[in-house]
Amino acid sequence: MTRRTYGQFCGVAHALELVGERWALLIARDLLVGPKRFTDLRRGLPRIPTNVLSARLKELEAAGIVRRRVLPRPASSVVYELTDYGSELDEIVLRLGRWGAQSLGERGPEEIVTTDSMIMALRATFQPTAAPGFRASYQLHLGEIVIHARIDDGTLDAGAGPLPNPDLVIETEAPLKPVLAGEISPTEAVESGRLRLTGDPALLPQFIALFAISTTPSRPPT
Amino acid sequence: MTRRTYGQFCGVAHALELVGERWALLIARDLLVGPKRFTDLRRGLPRIPTNVLSARLKELEAAGIVRRRVLPRPASSVVYELTDYGSELDEIVLRLGRWGAQSLGERGPEEIVTTDSMIMALRATFQPTAAPGFRASYQLHLGEIVIHARIDDGTLDAGAGPLPNPDLVIETEAPLKPVLAGEISPTEAVESGRLRLTGDPALLPQFIALFAISTTPSRPPT
DNA sequence: CTGGATCCCTCACGATACTG
DNA sequence: CAGTATCGTGAGGGATCCAG
Fewest CB atoms within 10 Å of the CB: A108, B67, B189, B190? Predict the structure, then answer.
């Protein structure tokens, strides 16, 4: 009844007692993409001390948010995955990501981008109604990171790694943001070499429409 | 570039850098109900050290989430209010509250209930589609706490304090939860004295329908 | 190599007292 | 009322070590 507890009988306060500790929601962010091993989580969160990761996983497990599971032989490795209750954080984390992204400035020199955070960013910006009936598969190379997005009539399936037969492969080292924000036109982005395409280039505008960044009226200071 | 920062270029990580510190989202919760003075915030968060409250307010102000405003004379007092950007936390806090409330057990002896948390709880459980075209005003006395809710065709206006001419006044010392969860019927709640009504008792079932607690299929451990 | 546990150190937080 | 000042504690940061 000391630290960690707010002493309030309140859903918000209790939620913060469960996932409000440092790193907890970033662990959830990565687990929302899929089950992961301890070391995979470390890779996605390089600055987390291992004891803190260990402690958080125990706490999240005790709270019924994360489940520790030993994979059947011959793998026999340990994976952490979200319970149903933990998975209900999905919409909250996506919204939090959208909210935070609005005041996200330029990428700093020390700031890393991870596979899982990019997948969640794709999911956060996805606009299901942008292209009804549209169906296509994209593969993205963002620096070292390779992820994919399958779109089928307003549904998105985003994940890590390449795809067998992507309709369009988009490669870039530059930030995608200005393109998705409409500051750089698709043709300009391709002609300047900012984006390199493999596959059907006609699918690029749809991609931009589906993941367009809505610049909201209320703009916070960066 | 040390603590407080996660070193990730990611909307979620940045959001947590802005409002992930202890107490920050509870301050936001209370300010979402309305602007408040320093002492009002203290009253709603009795266990927050004043220096921490002070520090949080400064940080939130620097992040463009909270605005410090000096009221015009003769009041000349200082109020803190959310900026437009800060107000966009509304839906996130409500969802977080719903998520946390699912694993909220019985009220502990040390746990307090505050006016603002109850107002947010009302807003979180409000179901706009439960009674189309319905219009009524309720006044609730929950122990010491007095709040009100005006419903008008799927919109809710919840706030602190009494109302001039409420259609129904509901008074209780017991938790409202079992009634809203359907574990206790309205008639039973009234007949047992659990709820005391003043006004039109026929409006009670609508109230329960509007703020019904949806018991979800996935139930976490308390 | 994975999956942690253990160490020490620092700083943010908690508690309390005090001030314009 | 609206905070600032002081001080102790413990969670988190960082590095290292260990078992399967």
Answer: A108
CB A199, CB A190: distance < 8 Å: no
User: Is the CB atom of residue B2 positioned under 7 angstroms from any atom of strand C?
Assistant: yes
Nearest residue of A to residue B89, measured between CA atoms = A99
Q: What is the mean pLDDT of residues A204-213?
A: 96
What pLDDT digit, counting tens, does each position of A107-147 carry?
998 899 999 999 999 999 999 999 999 999 999 999 999 99
Residue type, B111: E
With a 7 Å cutoff on the CB, does B212 touch strand C? no
**Nearest protein residue by Cα to C1' of nucleotide D6:** B51
Which residue gives the smallest C-alpha to C1' distance to C5?
Answer: A51
- C-alpha to C-alpha distance for B190 and A82, rounded to whole angstroms: 41
d(CA B29, CA B66): 12
Across chain B, mean pLDDT equals 94
Residue A155 (CA) to nucleotide D11 (C1'), in angstroms, measures 42
Separation between Cα atoms, residue B141 and residue B125, nearest integer Å: 18
Q: Are strands A135-142 and A168-172 parallel, antiparallel or unpaired?
A: parallel
- Both tokens of residue B42? 């203290």
- Going from the C-alpha of B5 to that of each of A17, B18, B103, B118, the distances in angstroms are 20, 9, 29, 32
Best mutation target among B52, B82, B99 (most A Cβ atoms within 10 Å) is B99
Q: Give the bases of strand D that a protein CB approaches within 7 Å.
A: 1-6, 10-16
